[in-house]
Amino acid sequence: MRTIMGRGRIAVALLAGAIVLAGLSGCSFDFPGSAPPPRLYVLTPKSTFPKDVPNVNWQLLIEIPHSPAGINTQRIVLRDSPIELKYFDRSNWTDLAPKMVQALMVESFENSGKILAVGRESVGLRADYVLKTELREFQAEYVSEMSLLGTGVDIDAAPPQIRVRMNVKLVKLPQRSIVASHTFESVKTAHMNSMESIMGAFDEALGKTLKGVVVWSLRKGEEAEVKRKDNRNGRGRR
């Protein structure tokens, strides 16, 4: 009897499995690794600067920019609402956005050829100044459907604006006193609603911001150095 009952249970299990498979034969599943990998994007550092930017003999550390949690990701942010963040499908930065911006900032300072030394805070550089930054906005912005109604513009085809907004503080070491603070903002409109065009607009917007940060930092830091030397010389003459 045990043998007969065991065979009966096996038969029932096989029949149930066949029914389940038959019911699922029209369904498709995404197994791990079956989805196409995301496309990876990287932006470029700034390499052209005004000729009147001062040459400086001090060293600068650049910290990783602080940013909201929604930006501190490899995913590329888009906004079509003032109260909601979304992300482009299957499109990522090559690194966390703040770390990517930090690397591009360091390289932009190096490309200026105007500074003695510049590096990330992790390199242990004996610096005279540190640049503290906050990446407040770094996204593609789509106008709302309501604002396009009646304009004749195709909502799905309308290209986004790219917005980059960054607050920068130049801090003197070792006193850790703030020398100057400024907020940079750049907005560029993509030519088309395609990732290639959107990336081009991102590159332009960030490039303009990086150029502003480099020029401003070198000028403000050098002004502070001149003032500090003048104050020291004034005390010496007394």
Kindly describe this structure.
- Mean pLDDT is 86; it is low at 1-5, 10-30 and 146-153.
- 36% of the residues lie in helices and 30% in strands.
- Strands 1, 2, 3, 4, 5, 6, 7 and 8 form an 8-stranded mixed sheet that branches.
- Helix 2 (97-112) packs across helix 4 (195-237).
- It has helices at residues 2-24, 97-112, 145-148, 195-237; strands at 39-41, 56-62, 75-81, 84-93, 115-120, 129-141, 161-172, 177-189.
- The radius of gyration is 28 Å and the shape is elongated.
- The chain has one domain (55-145, 155-237): 3-Layer(aba) Sandwich (Rossmann fold), CATH 3.40.50.
- By secondary structure, the chain is an alpha/beta fold.
Q: Tags for this entry?
A:
Rossmann fold, single chain, 238 residues, alpha/beta, 4 helices, eight-stranded mixed β-sheet
Largest sheet: 8 strands, mixed
Helix vs. strand class: alpha/beta
**Total number of domains:** 1
The counted number of beta strands is 8
The top level CATH class name: Alpha Beta
Q: Using the CA coordinates, give the radius of gyration.
A: 28 Å
Low-confidence runs of at least 5 consecutive residues: 1-5, 10-30, 146-153
Name the helix and strand elements from N-terminus to C-terminus, one letter apiece: HEEEEHEEHEEH
How many helical elements? 4
CATH homologous superfamily identity: ABC-type transport auxiliary lipoprotein component
Q: Helical proportion?
A: 25-40%
The shape is elongated
State mean pLDDT (0 to 100 scale).
Answer: 86
Reported by name, the CATH topology is Rossmann fold
**What CATH architecture would you give?**
3-Layer(aba) Sandwich
Distance between termini?
Answer: 114 Å
DSSP strand content: 25-35%
